[in-house]
Request: fold
Amino acid sequence: MTLRATLALVAMASTAAAESQSVYLESQDGDQIKIATITIADGGDYAIEMEDAPFSNHFLSMRPFRCLEGPKKHWCHVPYPYDINRNIHADLTDLEYDFLFLWKGATEYGINMWNGVYYKLEDDDGRLIGTLHEMDMDLLSAPPETGNLRPLKATDLHESDPDSHWLPRMVID
Reply:
């Protein structure tokens, strides 16, 4: 992590006691959908409150999902089921794990776990910008070894062509 990114995180954590950060997914044409609010405590611990309005309920592959319905693809939120610290002081990985999604075709009946979406976050002058990476969500089907809070490796994430997806960016500000 660069010094600039670290300073942005510290500034974000120090001002968050009085403020919250909004989380948006952004379409290819720049339209934003607010999906959550993050409240960050002085020590860097954070809590996320997902928005209700943009999501619809779907029952896919025998489990419930909250999905954003796009014209050609649906983006279904996958809450990370294992332990993480939920603290932004060390790095942004906890936030990345909290915003995992699967995409499915709008007319498809079920989901395919290999259609995982991971937004790799970076600081951009005080705003956090997530770049869409694809991953096989089956990698998370079994719990990681005790104490392993980072089961995904860089080799598990594949940068995606932004033009091939409905929501290629995440913005936190």
The chain has one domain: 3-172. The chain has a mean pLDDT of 87. The longest helix spans residues 3-15.
